[in-house]
């Protein structure tokens, strides 16, 4: 029997694209802004999921790229008067280039040490930006470039960018994971020695994955802060971004396309119910992460898949997450 | 002369930084696990110190003893009930588990104590100073450095010469095979985590005596610990001590030159050393 | 009743079953050999009996007690330990510290550090040397000594001859007589059939995780063993 899934996924992609294109014309501006936030946070989480679950690189410093992408677009479009929407692809390039620049250094470290080294770099960049007047120091930058534009148009294009990110975070990841490059990433993630023995360049494969993942985070960071017209170092480089990304991916299931979709939905539902409780709500996120790790490190989608065998996309990369000895 | 004093003060601070890193490095050395919640445990220990100081007899400094004991027991429980259960080939579950703990712990502290800055009162010891070779040094920083050095030396000797130290070293080498000698490595891991947290707790209390802290200080503490361990070469005892000194001196010298961003230069120094030698100080010495 | 009885043992690594329904028994004072080709499941079987690895179905009885679900450290304290494949010394510890690790089992008996040095005099001269810097043969001596220091009733030995020169292998097997004198029963894994027959009175041959032949080593013929070893009995 042939697998119908690729055709169904293509159909789903077409339907999703049509719905997203139509959305700004039917939904109100307030709803759009909320959806933009959801899409951006989903894109953050999915890029972390890509790095941890598909490339095999766990970072605790992805707020670095959120901030870099946002500051890149704000600074360039404010000073040069360029349309910020056109700068978003360049935010991808800029964040990716920054990732490429630091990778020779951080790739020397493994696992948690790799993860925290990026956090250290995020702190350096945050402290650096907070000292420089050109970046508005601690109080940050407003987005001036959109002030002359039509409000409805701005919110529509912001939505389209966010929608594109979310679309890519689902279907882009799906096609990437199925590509030659995606298979090379899987091979490197599962076993470096085996990957090298079948002719895969381990360092470059991982490097390319890192650059793509971080670039994507940067583009999403740019769109997120464009949607709120203001960026500050304390917010853009806030380690709490990591908490949110981790929560979404862990709860949903790392190394799956579907997991973070579920995780994002759970996150925004929890936030809607508990946002008034401040710290209790953050504690809840942490406790949920602990609980998932104690029960099954593969998250809700992973467990659901194990129980039912349902696998919507067929590109899971979670096999390496099983633990060796319990108790 | 002011520069000599800055460097000396940086070394006094650096000795304490080394102690901040020691707990993290020790846990990594024995179990290859990285406790991401270490920074927040350090802060929690400082709160415990604030709580216990009024009941501490003789001198407030002695509060490190009960805090260390409580942390030791807590470390054993934490390891045996939670971390041991997620250990395996894959490092990710363990790291994410402790990350979750860090979030819970940090926000619980904010919830209980608020975000205000706190400090542990050691009476007039904080303001006492003495002159040596034309330098003016604080008594408290010198005492704290003494405690740090003593703990490094004590741990080193205990690991070398005691029966339990031998068992821990063997478990670090091969936790599967120690079982064939009748050793339950899960129990050894519990003790190792107890020691790691006790050391971190002492560091946390001493930091809170020298300066101040908030429930959010955990992230900074973790980064310092992490930098000390990586600069030191992942698990090398005296490398970590050197790593602490380097960080302390860099921070204070940079604060003198650039009062607004001394912290940043400490982080940059870490990157420079990582760039020069992937294996930290231990790697530099070996070459 | 045998000292060690293995009944109908299956061993799994995840979804993969490496050992199928093995029965094996070892009497007090006896030496038994397990032979078989690479990948026949010998080490998997021994790792499962010692409790160090693998999920198992079936029963392992030691001294009359069911120890199937006991952890490896408990089994060692109860008096059965293993010399693991590849020796796996604690490389950062000295020779003497490696030996003293055996004391952790808390069992009293004839074996002390002094007795080990009497058995392997060379180790006495190397007592302060880091175990990682020893030659292969010396490392194997330390590994045997470390296991003996737990004063076991049963000693499981996984491929003692792995990677060693023939003269050194002979030296190591020569010490078996002394070990048996102290009342230790032994299970050895050997790829070398002649060596196994010389060391053990009874042998099991494993093929693809199953016992393909067993019997007293003085009654088994070379043709039988070859057939069971390579699985060629139909064509041979």
Describe the protein in words.
The complex is a heterotrimer of chains A (327), B (287) and C (236). With 327 residues, chain A is mostly helical. Chain A has helices spanning 5-26, 29-55, 63-80, 84-106, 111-131, 151-178, 180-190, 192-197, 202-228, 233-236, 240-252, 258-274, 279-295, 299-308, and strands at residues 141-142, 230-231. Chain A has one domain. Chain A is built from 14 helices and two strands, in the order H-H-H-H-H-E-H-H-H-H-E-H-H-H-H-H. Chain A has a two-stranded antiparallel sheet with strand order 1-2. The model of chain A is unreliable at 318-327 (pLDDT under 50). Chain C contains ten helices and ten strands. In chain C, strand 4 and strand 5 (65-66) form a beta hairpin. In chain C, helix 3 (95-101) runs parallel beside helix 6 (136-148). The chains are: A mainly alpha (327), B mainly alpha (287), C alpha/beta (236). Chains A and B meet through helix 5, helix 11 and helix 13 of A and helix 3, helix 4, helix 8 and helix 10 of B.
Brief overview:
The complex is a heterotrimer of chains A (327), B (287) and C (236). Chain A has 327 residues and is mostly helical.
The helix/strand class of chain C is alpha/beta
Low-confidence stretches of chain C: none
User: What is the number of beta strands of chain A?
Assistant: 2
Q: Calculate the terminal CA-CA distance of chain C, rounded to whole Å.
A: 37 Å
Question: β content of chain C, as a range?
Answer: 25-35%
Shape of chain C: globular
Strand order of the largest sheet of chain C: 6-7-8-3-9-10
Strand order of the largest sheet of chain A: 1-2
The DSSP helix count of chain A reads 14
CATH secondary-structure class of chain C = Alpha Beta
Number of domains of chain A: 1
- Helix content range of the residues of chain C, please? 25-40%
CATH architecture field of chain C: 3-Layer(aba) Sandwich
Average predicted local confidence, pLDDT of chain A: 85
| Most extensive protein-chain contact, per-chain counts | A-B, 47 and 47 residues
Order of helices and strands of chain A: HHHHHEHHHHEHHHHH
**Uncertain stretches of 5 or more adjacent residues of chain A:** 318-327
Total helical elements of chain C: 10
């Amino acid at each position: 029997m042939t697998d119908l899934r690729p055709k169904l996924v293509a159909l789903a992609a077409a339907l999703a694209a049509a719905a997203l294109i139509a959305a700004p014309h039917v939904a109100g501006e307030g709803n759009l802004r909320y959806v933009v936030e959801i899409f951006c946070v989903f894109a953050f989480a999915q890029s972390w999921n890509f790095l941890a679950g598909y490339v095999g690189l766990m970072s605790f410093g992805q707020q670095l790229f959120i901030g870099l992408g946002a500051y890149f677009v704000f600074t360039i479009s404010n000073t040069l008067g360029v349309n910020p929407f056109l700068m978003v692809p360049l935010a991808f390039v800029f964040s990716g280039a920054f990732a490429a620049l630091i990778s020779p250094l951080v790739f020397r470290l493994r696992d948690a040490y790799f993860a925290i080294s990026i956090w250290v770099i995020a702190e350096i960049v945050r402290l650096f930006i907070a000292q420089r007047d050109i970046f508005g120091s601690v109080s940050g930058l407003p987005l001036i470039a959109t002030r002359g534009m039509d409000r409805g148009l701005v919110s529509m294009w912001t939505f389209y960018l966010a929608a594109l990110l979310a679309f890519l975070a689902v279907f882009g990841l799906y096609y990437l994971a199925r590509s030659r490059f995606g298979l090379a990433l899987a091979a490197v993630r599962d076993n470096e020695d085996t990957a090298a023995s079948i002719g895969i360049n381990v360092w470059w494969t991982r490097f390319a994955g890192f650059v793509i993942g971080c670039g994507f985070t940067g583009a999403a960071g740019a769109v997120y802060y464009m949607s709120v017209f203001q960026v500050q170092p304390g917010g853009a480089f806030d380690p709490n971004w990591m908490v949110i990304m981790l929560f979404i991916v862990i709860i949903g299931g790392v190394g799956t396309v579907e997991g973070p979709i579920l995780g994002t939905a759970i996150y925004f539902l929890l936030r809607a119910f508990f946002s008034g409780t401040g710290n209790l709500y953050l504690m809840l996120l942490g406790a949920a992460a602990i609980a998932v790790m104690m029960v099954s490190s593969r998250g809700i989608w992973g467990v659901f898949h194990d129980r039912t065998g349902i696998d919507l996309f067929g590109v899971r990369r979670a096999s390496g997450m099983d633990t060796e000895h319990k108790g | 002369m002011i520069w000599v004093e800055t460097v000396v003060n940086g070394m006094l601070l650096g000795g304490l930084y080394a102690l901040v890193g020691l707990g993290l490095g020790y846990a990594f050395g024995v179990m290859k696990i990285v406790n991401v919640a270490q920074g927040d445990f350090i802060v929690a220990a400082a709160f415990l110190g604030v709580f216990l100081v009024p009941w501490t007899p003789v001198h407030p400094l002695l509060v490190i003893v009960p805090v260390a004991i409580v942390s030791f027991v807590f470390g054993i429980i934490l390891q045996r009930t939670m971390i041991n259960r997620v250990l395996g080939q894959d490092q990710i579950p363990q790291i994410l588990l402790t990350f979750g703990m860090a979030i819970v712990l940090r926000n619980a502290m904010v919830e209980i104590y608020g975000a205000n800055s706190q400090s542990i009162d050691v009476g007039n010891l904080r303001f006492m100073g003495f002159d040596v070779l034309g330098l003016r040094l604080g008594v408290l920083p010198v005492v704290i450095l003494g405690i740090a050095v003593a703990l490094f030396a004590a741990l080193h000797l205990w690991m070398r010469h005691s029966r339990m130290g031998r068992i821990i070293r063997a478990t670090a080498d091969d936790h599967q095979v120690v079982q064939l000698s009748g050793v339950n490595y899960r129990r050894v891991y519990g003790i190792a985590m107890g020691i790691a947290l006790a050391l971190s707790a002492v560091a946390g209390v001493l930091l809170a005596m020298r300066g101040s802290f908030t429930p959010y200080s955990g992230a900074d503490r973790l980064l310092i610990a992490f930098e000390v361990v990586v600069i030191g070469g992942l698990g090398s005892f005296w490398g970590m001590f050197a790593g602490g000194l380097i960080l302390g001196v860099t921070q204070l010298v940079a604060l003198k030159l650039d009062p607004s961003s001394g912290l940043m230069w400490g982080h940059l120094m870490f990157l420079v050393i990582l760039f020069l030698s992937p294996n930290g100080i231990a790697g530099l010495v070996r070459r | 009743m045998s000292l060690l009885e293995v009944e109908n043992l299956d061993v799994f690594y995840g979804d993969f079953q490496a050992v199928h329904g093995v029965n094996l028994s070892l009497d007090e004072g006896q030496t038994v050999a397990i032979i078989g080709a690479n990948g026949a499941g010998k080490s998997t079987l021994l790792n499962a009996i010692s409790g160090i690895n693998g999920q198992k179905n079936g029963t392992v009885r030691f001294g009359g007690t069911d120890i199937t679900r006991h952890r490896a450290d408990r089994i060692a304290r109860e008096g059965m330990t293993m010399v693991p494949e590849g020796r796996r010394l604690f490389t950062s510890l000295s020779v003497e510290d490696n030996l003293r690790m055996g004391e952790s089992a808390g069992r009293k008996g004839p074996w002390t550090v002094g007795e080990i040095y009497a058995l392997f005099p060379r180790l006495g001269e190397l007592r302060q040397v880091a175990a990682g810097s020893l030659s292969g043969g010396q490392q194997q001596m330390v590994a045997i000594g470390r296991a003996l220091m737990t004063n076991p009733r049963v000693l499981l030995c996984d491929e003692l001859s792995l990677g060693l020169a023939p003269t050194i292998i002979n030296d190591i097997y020569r010490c078996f007589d002394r070990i048996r004198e102290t009342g230790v029963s032994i299970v050895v894994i050997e790829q070398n059939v002649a060596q196994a027959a010389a060391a053990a009175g009874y042998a099991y041959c494993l093929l693809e995780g199953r016992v393909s032949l067993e019997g007293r080593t003085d009654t088994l013929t070379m043709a039988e063993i070859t057939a069971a070893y390579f699985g060629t009995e139909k064509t041979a």
